[in-house]
Amino acid sequence: MNFKLRDEEMASRIIRSIASYDMDVRLMHVCGTHQDTLVKFGLEQMLKDVGVEIRQGPGCPVCVTTGKEIAEAMTLAEAGKTVCAFGDMMNVPTSRGTLMDMRSQGHDVRIVYSIEDAVAIAKEGREVVFMSVGFETTTPSAAITLQRRRPENFTILSCHRLLPPALDALFKMGEIKIDGFIQPGHVAVIIGMEPFRPFSEIYHLPQVIAGFEPLDLLMAVQMLVKQLAEGRAEVENEYSRLVRPNGNPTARAAIEQVFMPVDRAWRGFPVLPGSALELRPEFVEFNARAVHEDILATIGEVEDDARGCRCGDVLRGLIESAECPLFGKACTPKSPRGPCMVSREGNCNISYRYGGKL
Question: What is d(CA 104, CA 87) in angstroms, rounded to the nearest whole number?
Answer without folding.
Answer: 15
